[in-house]
Design a protein that fits this description.
- The chain is α+β, with helices and mostly antiparallel strands and 348 residues long.
- The protein has one domain.
- Helices cover 26% and strands 22% of the residues.
- Strands 7, 10, 11, 12, 13 and 14 form a six-stranded antiparallel β-sheet that branches. Strands 2-5-1-6 form a four-stranded antiparallel β-sheet.
- It is globular and about 60 Å long.
- The structure holds protoporphyrin IX containing FE (HEM).
- The site of protoporphyrin IX containing FE has 27 residues, from β7, α8, β12 and α9.
């Protein structure tokens, strides 16, 4: 990794919504780090190999790296706000924090393209990782979730989207990156369908057919839209970029929404989660949770495309030593050993 690049090219985080996606979360097996390190710079080439002959398919792949994996893979500084996702346990509903070292968010207009790229990735990772979750998402009707509501309307666009999701000068080594939180939700469609459309609209905070937001004096404080609207003390609204996808299996009675939210800082998405699960002064919790159960939850850092092409060296390589001796004195362990085992912990 060279000097910080203020113009680092992001991965395809901002690419427009597609008809289909694969969400693949894996953990790295002990000793699998070098296989993963070898793959990351080759991802762009694999995507080109499959996507180039089918430009109308708009194949893209975003790779994210989890907090613990970062230190196993790379030496040197780490993204300032990368940490394991905190579980949010409310009195009624719980957002779990589940294992995940790598996320591959593969999107295209055609499922076969996503599938082909996923196969190539897993061929390369064979024997080095364990798959924790694999979800095939699809666009449903006119961009609706399986609750029947249009999902994605209030996403930021253009420069507002870039401003909301791409890391800038606040963390120069990782400019062009982004943070992403994923959660897999399963819906209780029997309970949902037994509600009137008016009750469903009060749950979401928008009309069902027309997708129009309710006026503030009508929208219930425990609606999904009310609790996911985050406003800073100075009145600035904080946004994230979502690309949720329905998924499911009719045979298994499984109907879900895969939530994926990109943000410049994970703090914004985490505040949304806290409000959804813990409520606020006026709301006990987000009513959408009464029919939607979070099964997974993981936070990843998405390095810029440039950093992915030329990642930092592995832990323990001279890159870290080149920064010079630390300012504090390191005392020799009392047992007289060199204390080499302690080096691992000092990187954290
Ligand atoms: C808005 C569905 C989970 C953040 C919406 C809307 C729908 C929806 C239908 C209204 C249309 C739109 O603007 O997109 C769902 C479903 C979820 C889910 C089915 C899973 C069961 C989440 C989670 C978060 C979130 C976990 C954040 C942590 C937002 C935000 C908005 C939104 C920021 C826009 C609010 C606004 O400014 O109007 N969601 N959502 N959603 N959702 Fe979700």
């Amino acid at each position: 990794m060279g000097e910080p690049d203020p113009h680092a090219e992001p991965q395809a985080v901002l690419s427009p919504l597609t008809r289909t996606a694969i969400f693949l979360v894996v953990t790295i097996d002990p000793g699998g780090e070098s296989v993963v390190r070898d793959l990351l710079p080759d991802l762009a080439g694999l995507r080109r190999a499959i996507g180039f002959p089918a430009p109308e398919g708009r194949l893209s792949c975003v790779a994210g790296i989890g907090s613990e994996a970062w230190d196993r893979l790379f030496a040197g500084p780490r993204p300032a706000e990368l940490h394991p996702l905190k579980e949010v346990a409310g009195p009624v509903h719980r957002a779990p924090s589940t294992p995940g070292d790598l996320l591959f968010h593969i999107r295209a207009q055609r499922h076969d393209l996503c599938f082909a790229l996923e196969s190539q990735i897993m061929n390369r990772l064979s024997g080095a990782v364990t798959v924790r979750d694999e979800v095939y998402g699809f666009k449903y009707l006119d961009v609706r979730d399986l609750l029947g509501f249009v999902d994605g309307t209030e996403n930021p666009e253009g420069s507002a989207a870039e401003e909301a999701v791409i890391v800038g000068d606040e963390d120069p080594d990782f400019a062009g990156g982004s943070y992403v939180i994923v959660q897999k939700y399963l819906h209780d469609l029997d309970a949902w369908n037994s509600m009137t459309v008016e009750a469903q609209e009060r749950t979401i905070g928008r009309t069902k057919l027309g997708d129009i937001e309710m006026a503030d004096d009508v929208k219930p404080p425990d609606s999904h839209v009310a609790l996911t609207t985050i406003v800073d003390p100075d009145g600035t609204e904080r946004q994230i970029l979502r690309d949720n996808m329905p998924f499911g299996s009719v045979a298994r009675g499984e109907f879900g929404t895969y939530f994926i939210g990109y943000a410049r800082t994970p703090d914004v998405t985490e505040r949304m989660l806290e409000r959804m699960f813990l409520g606020d002064d006026e709301a006990a919790h987000d009513r959408i949770l009464d029919v939607s159960t979070a099964q997974t939850g993981t936070l990843f850092f998405v390095p810029s495309a440039d950093l992915l092409d030329d990642p930092p060296g592995p832990p323990g390589e001279p890159a870290a030593a080149a920064e010079g001796p630390p300012a504090t004195t390191i005392e020799a362990p009392a047992d007289g050993s060199l204390g080499i085992g302690g080096l691992k912990g000092s990187a954290e």
